[in-house]
């Protein structure tokens, strides 16, 4: 589903150049539930932006569902995002002047889906996340967990292949975090590929594979374990 090979990313400011990603090799298969962990400055956000076709890279190759992601015009990038990707954010990113159903339906509006079909599908996905009774509520009438459920419904409404979640439980308490993770696992069982960027070990431990970033390079949990053993010896 996702294959990155030798991805490098630089941020340049004047004559200064910051090498953020330093040769990322990453393969995520269809149907995986994966977490990406790393300390601040490790490159997690940059990697997620590249995976989400929101940012470019300077070297290497990226294939998303067999489609090469390189040198795309914005219309091409938007087409790939709309067809394959759904996004969930820590801050929910709900429009405050639209109710829950309208927020869920918004991606369908941008795809040109008619109002009746938009409303029908929005209500379907709100029911799936357990909020059918809150469809007319505005975001400021919802709890943090309910807002994130709306955001997940919005991410799913276009039936994407991949869900990219950026610290989706970062603003939630431990009980609500577990509720949201249970929902992600339910969504995963339906066949979605899910990638969760998190700094919370309790969240990462509920995914099938943990990927660690350090200083712009990726390593697996097994490699981290081996490194720790080597230090102990």
Helices, strands, pairings?
Elements: E1 2-13, E2 16-28, E3 33-37, H1 44-51, E4 59-64, E5 67-68, H2 74-84, E6 85-89, H3 100-110, H4 115-128, H5 144-156, E7 162-166, H6 174-189, E8 193-197, H7 201-204, E9 209-214, E10 217-220, H8 221-232
Parallel strand pairs: 3-8, 3-9, 6-7, 7-8
Antiparallel strand pairs: 1-2, 1-4, 4-5, 9-10
Helix pairs in contact: 3-4, 3-5, 4-5, 5-6
Description:
The chain has 233 residues and is of the alpha/beta class. Helices cover 38% and strands 27% of the residues. The chain contains 8 helices and 10 strands. The protein has helices spanning 44-51, 74-84, 100-110, 115-128, 144-156, 174-189, 201-204, 221-232; strands at 2-13, 16-28, 33-37, 59-64, 67-68, 85-89, 162-166, 193-197, 209-214, 217-220. The strands form 2 sheets. The chain has a 6-stranded mixed beta sheet with strand order 6-7-8-3-9-10, sandwiched between helices. Strands 2-1-4-5 form a 4-stranded antiparallel beta sheet, with helices on one face. Helix 3 packs parallel to helix 5 (144-156). The chain is globular and about 50 Å long. The chain starts with a strand and ends with a helix. Residues 224-233 have low confidence and may be disordered.
């Amino acid at each position: 589903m996702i294959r990155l090979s030798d991805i490098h990313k630089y941020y340049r400011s004047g004559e200064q150049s910051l090498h953020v990603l330093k040769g990322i090799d990453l393969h995520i298969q269809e149907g995986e539930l994966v977490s990406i962990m790393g300390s601040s400055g490790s490159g997690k956000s940059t990697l997620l932006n590249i995976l989400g076709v929101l940012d470019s890279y300077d070297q290497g190759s990226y294939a998303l569902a067999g489609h090469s992601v390189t040198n795309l015009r914005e219309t091409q990038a938007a087409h790939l995002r709309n067809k394959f990707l759904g996004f969930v954010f820590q801050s929910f990113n709900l429009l405050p002047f639209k109710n829950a159903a309208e927020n869920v339906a918004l991606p369908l509006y941008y795809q040109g889906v008619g109002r009746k079909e938009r409303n029908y599908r929005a209500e379907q996905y709100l029911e799936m996340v357990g909020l059918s009774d809150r469809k007319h509520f505005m975001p400021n009438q919802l709890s943090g967990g309910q807002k994130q459920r709306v955001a997940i419904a919005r991410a799913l409404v276009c039936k994407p292949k991949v869900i990219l979640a950026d610290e989706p439980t970062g603003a939630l308490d431990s009980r609500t975090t577990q509720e949201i993770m249970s929902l992600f696992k339910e969504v995963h069982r339906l066949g979605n590929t899910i990638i969760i960027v998190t700094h919370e070990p309790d969240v990462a431990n509920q995914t099938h594979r943990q990927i660690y970033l350090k200083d712009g390079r990726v390593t697996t949990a097994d490699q981290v374990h081996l490194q720790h053993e080597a230090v102990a010896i």
